[in-house]
Amino acid sequence: MMGRVTLVGAGPGDPGLLTQKGKKAIETAQVVVYDRLVSPEILALIPPTAKAIDVGKQANRHPVPQEEINQILLREALGGANVVRLKGGDPFLFGRGGEELELLAQHHVPFQVVPGVTSALAVPAYGGIPVTHRDCCSSLHIVTGHQRAGKELDIDFAALVATKGTLVFLMGVAALPQICEGLLNAGMDPHTPAAIVERGTTPAQRRVSATLATLAQAAQEHQVVSPAISIVGGVCALADQFDWFDALPLKGRTFVVTRPAARQGTLAQGLRELGANVWEFPCIHTTPISPCEALTAALEGLGNYQWVAFTSPVGVQVFFDALNAQGRDSRALGGVKLAAIGPGTAAALRKYGLTADYVPEVYNAQALGQGIPATGKVLLPRAAEGSPLLSQALTERGIPYEDVAIYTTQYHNPRSPQLRQALENGDLSYVTFTSASTVKGFVASVGADAPLGNITGLCIGHQTAQEAQRYGIPVRIAQEATISGLLRLAQTL
Ligand code: SAH
């Protein structure tokens, strides 16, 4: 059977600028052929079962020639695969998307195109430059500054200058001096505002503002490298006023997020929205204990418990998976009361249509044990490594309980030389810890002899902070033990 090819624009860098249609195409692909400028967060959407082919081109180095890329697409589609061709920005804007379709069309391979947010528009926008403004211009011109080896730039400078429009140059870092000179020679005012924006829409974005006469030199002084976009026109004067992205509170800071991969979403995303550079490094991962006789027995005797107390969203999920596996559902909990350690766990219960009867004021194991208004037996379905403070508090109050280990927490990255190197170089300022086990996992990954004093641990609560302090990690503690609490803490740094 014949496959098909979907040409997808991945946007300019910020993973949030991938279109919904593009995301869906990637998630359902069997083969993904991708370029250098596609961000890691978007590559992470490629299903683990799909074949991912890197044809990324480095400047001046062409590991996979265009002709071969065309052949790869053809071969995979003829082999019956649902192929996604993932390209930076928009596939048709200086993306050679058209060339790739020609061969497919000749062979009657069905194809579709999902346009992307082009860097030509998004990068100026993130640099605070509205590409048109009624007071400045009435047109916009997007030009390639790519110079073929040994050839002159093929740009009609006089025509460009005559438009009086905003000029946007892609692929123009190497040829920037010739571009500026060309415009000057064609009579453009040397005082025309200009800017170059490097790695736009990413946490590493840098903007250098200048005038047409000084831009090339300014770019050289700041060692601007590809990918970068140059903008020439009166609108560039607005950049300082509209510079919203560089002004984000966490811009330029690097955070390591150590939560398990499946749960990183909100924290990593929230930090990115604040402008942070986020290094997702899951240090632990959880595995349900299966079969789990103790849980099976507890579920069969649910009526014996007055309360079930949950200490994590994972715990909720494993518990209900086991209940469902018995052919039962939330109704089995009937008159049993439910406690959740914090809002995240309470939210996990709500997914099953259940409201927690009790959430402690402070979201930790000790507070849960001290505050749960139980008189009868409490079931604690939780991690094998769960905090003893919970059971101790119950014991002290004379409340009977059954502690059932339903999942285990493993350290995931036995050793990470990259992480350790970054820590030694002082490149990691902040590491977020959402549980004591993430602290243990992180320390195991970098080694206990690493200079852990170099970082600040942003801890969700006091128990997590105590664990970090045991290793000599300076800590800051969220006022509220939730992901939102951690995000608020990050904004005070
Ligand atoms: N199809 C792409 C452009 C491909 S040409 C698009 O629509 O965006 C590659 C050029 O795009 C780079 O040389 C650079 O000029 C520009 N570019 C792409 N991503 C960029 C980014 N994040 N920041 C600055 N320029 C970028």
Secondary-structure blueprint:
Elements: E1 4-9, H1 20-27, E2 31-34, H2 40-43, E3 51-54, H3 66-78, E4 82-87, H4 97-106, E5 111-114, H5 119-126, E6 140-144, H6 157-163, E7 166-170, H7 176-185, E8 193-198, E9 206-211, H8 215-221, E10 228-232, E11 254-257, H9 265-273, E12 277-280, E13 284-288, H10 293-300, E14 307-310, H11 313-325, E15 337-340, H12 343-350, H13 365-371, E16 378-383, H14 388-396, E17 401-411, H15 417-424, E18 430-433, H16 436-446, E19 456-459, H17 462-470, E20 475-477, H18 483-490
Parallel strand pairs: 1-4, 1-5, 2-3, 2-4, 6-7, 11-12, 11-18, 14-15, 14-16, 16-17, 18-19, 19-20
Antiparallel strand pairs: 7-10, 8-9, 8-10, 13-17
Helix pairs in contact: 3-4, 6-7, 9-18, 11-12, 13-14, 16-17
Bound molecules: S-adenosyl-L-homocysteine (SAH).
S-adenosyl-L-homocysteine is lined by residues 12-13, 37, 87-90, 93-95, 118-120, 123, 170-171, 197, 199-202, 226-229.
Q: What can you tell me about this protein's structure?
A:
This protein is 32% helix and 20% strand. The protein is an alpha/beta fold. The chain has a five-stranded parallel β-sheet, with helices on both faces. Strands 6-7-10-8-9 form a five-stranded mixed β-sheet, with helices on both faces. Helix 17 links the parallel strand 19 (456-459) and strand 20. Helix 3 crosses helix 4. The N and C termini lie far apart (57 Å). The protein binds S-adenosyl-L-homocysteine. S-adenosyl-L-homocysteine binds at residues 12-13, 37, 87-90, 93-95, 118-120, 123, 170-171, 197, 199-202, 226-229.
